[in-house]
Amino acid sequence: MNMEMFGRISDAFGPSGFEEEVVRTIAGYCKPYRVENDAMNNLYVTLPDVAADKPVIQLDAHTDECGFMVQSVMDNGVLSIIMLGGFMLTSLPAHSVIIRTRDGRRVRGIIMAKPVHFMTQQERNAQNLQIETMYVDVGATSREEVETVYGVHVGDPIMPEVSFSYDVEHDVCFGKAFDNRAGCACIVETLGKLYPVRRELPVQVVGAFAAQEEVGMRGATVTAQVVKPDLAIVFEGSPSDDFFFSATQAQGRMKQGVQIRRLDNSYVSNPAFIEFARSLAEELGIPYQEAVRRGGSTNAGKISLTHRAVPVLVLGVPSRYVHSHYNFCAGADMDAATELAAQVIRRLDAGAIRHICRQDILEGEV
Fold first, then answer.
1. What is the CATH classification number for the domain harbouring 8?
2. Which is the catalytic residue, given 213, 214, 236, 339?
3. Is residue 213 annotated as part of the catalytic site, yes or no?
4. How confident is the model at residue 365 (pLDDT cuts 50, 70, 90)?
């Protein structure tokens, strides 16, 4: 994995609905390909010079990150905020954020945390935090100062303030928004692996970087209609569960390989596609782990429902503490995800596609 590339994508400003910087950053790494965008901040990257009559496989990852928006500016100069996506509220107080103003300036703020000196005993023990009672402090003392000096207004987007770093000795990435900038980096890397052999591939490959996943998988609703895929691979920065279950029960362990997801709240996987990928991982020695999720969702839920149904393979990069400020993931798991995706695409043929798309299901006997 190109860690410089991953780091720049991770650091980019991009709460749901405000993904422009992420789009421009990714596009900068896709110059050899055909690149387009739409009005929703979805980005489409197509390998060029490929026969148009081939089946289409869509590579999906979402560009947006969990963030906030300024809901109102209070008289005392603090900002009332609303969430874009699903943060765990207990992880937010006392952490810093960046507000992007209407004129493009960046203003640092702190999510207010009431000093323990002023708390009642009941407040010290409280766990029922509410976003309506959380505020961002930019250092101002009045609403007028916030708006005229800092340039912050209602509707301005906010992201966590975190900078990417890579510990090469231990192969550990640190940063924000690995859900799903890890997936975005995996698409870029996979396209790079396939570009030299693009004309020999059995499919057309389109990388579709979707906006607004964290607020309802909205971008993928559009990209699937535009791309009209026959098959799809969804990359996701999946929540790592290695600290919450035993080693034999955990299904998203960091440094244990790519996660092949069989089920979550948004879709039931295509068994033929899963088996095709799993068998290939076994054959090639690509480390993998399988997951059946009780919760969560991915863009597979939208893509799989497009036109006559699309078989989707979800490949996850186990990432610790997603939907919070700070994340860890392993470069080796990203490499496993991109290698498995590239090999799946290379090994597809007419028979495999027909089987995965269930076009042979009526030929068998009951």
1. 3.40.630.10
2. 213
3. yes
4. low
